[in-house]
Amino acid sequence: MHRTRKAASAARTARLASCVLLATAAALVGCERGSSDTAEATATGPNGCPAVHARAQESVTRAQRTDIPWGGPTSGPEAVSGRTIVYVAQTMTNPGVAGAANGVRDAARVLGWNVRVIDGGGTPAGIQAAMSEAVALRPSGIVIGGFDPDSTARQAARANAQGIPLVGWHAVPEPGPSRQPDLFTNITTRVQDVARISAQWIIADSDGRAGVVLITDASIPFARYKSDLIREELATCQGVRLLSVENIPIPDASSRTPREISSLLSRFGDRWTHSVAINDLYFADAAPAFRAAGKKGSGPPFNIGAGDGDPSAFQRINNKQYQAATVPEPLNLQGWQIVDEFNRAFSGSPHSGYVAPAHIATAANSEGATTWNPSGYREAYRKIWGK
Which strands sit side by side in the sheet containing 325-326, from one edge to the other? Predict the structure, then answer.
């Protein structure tokens, strides 16, 4: 999907004293402070950034393919029996966290394992309490579901001391094992790939001429890292202006997002052509404010979520209701991978090393689906497990 979007006429140049002028771009990027920061720059001509735009188009075309064959493991230990997994969730109101938990339940049923989900409620105290409860249960394994393990360092250390393996989902920035904190492995797409392709979608969709709002949760290191990478990629295109960086904690999204969106619409008007958020859920909360302002569901602004691709995000995309695209996590697959990684840990085998590819879902390629997962993963894991 490569629609031509005409950016607003050249805007006056303004600068906040605390901001840094990026030497590699003619756009002035907003510095993050509290809820939002703004910066404006003059677009650099009618063609945006031709070379960067061409590369972005190529990358987006590849990422929108749906005929992705299974690229994960095809061998591993047979299933062990009689295990109990506790999934500690950052908050089950986060659709990505909840989707991965459902995938764990789905896969565990195949193996006859028990799964218990403990909801941390999105607060530091709640997550610590949930993790303490999980360790006290002395399960076979614990999932760190979408929060920084360092925030529960004492509980994680107790689990390690008791020989309870920890598997993370979006727990640290990189996929694979971690030693500090000590995780058997961490399940996530590569944040670099997700950040890059979401920014490239904006560059491609706008012909390199966009006014962008970026929404993040700076309290989560993973999310902040992702938004920093998005900013870097957007800055490669001279015609893209980062208008604002909105720092809205995920637990506060339902209350704060509508107010912030209304303020942004008042401040930027038609200069705001595209948005990118580190999680799709922000656009569910943004929809009432867009609607109240008379904005069409099909845009502008044209909104892309850099994760997690839950069913509600697909519904907004397919119905053209204030979201145009998402870079979805294959949530059900990742739940199955979590179970497979635990099975490897219980069997004394190394982690699988599998990392799911980044994908872009739009109304044009989702064909009405409400999730995205590479094909063949269930069959592959069942074969490995002997089930």
Answer: 36-38, 240-247, 210-216, 274-277, 302-305, 325-326, 361-362
**CA distances to 79, 142, 145, 293 from 82, in Å:** 10, 15, 22, 55
Q: State how far the Cα of 270 lies from the Cα of 106, in Å rounded to an integer.
A: 45
pLDDT for res 102: 96
Best CA proximity match to 145, nearest among 194, 195, 193, 186? 186
Q: What is the pLDDT of residue 68?
A: 82
- Specify whether the CB–CB gap between 28 and 213 falls below 8 A: no
DSSP 303-329: EEESS---HHHHHHHHTTSS--EE---
State both tokens at 52: 């960067």
Tell me the mean pLDDT in the region 295-300. 95
Give the pLDDT band (50/70/90) at residue 46: low
- Exposed/middle/buried for residue 153 (C-beta within 10 Å: 0-12, 13-18, 19+): middle
The alpha-helical segments, DSSP class H, found in the chain are 50-63, 95-111, 124-136, 153-161, 191-205, 221-234, 253-268, 281-292, 311-318, 331-346, 363-366, 377-385
The H or E element spanning position 370 is none
Instruction: Give first-to-last CA distance, the chain, whole Å.
Output: 40
Least confident of 25-34, 113-122, 138-147, 170-179: 25-34
Residue 279, pLDDT > 80, answer: yes
Question: What sign has the CA pseudo-torsion 245, 247, 251, 255?
Answer: negative
143, 157, 134, 386: CA torsion to nearest 10: 40
Q: 236: number of CA atoms within 13 Å, CB side?
A: 18
Q: Are strands 185-187 and 166-169 parallel, antiparallel or unpaired?
A: parallel
Residue with tokens 């002395």: 138
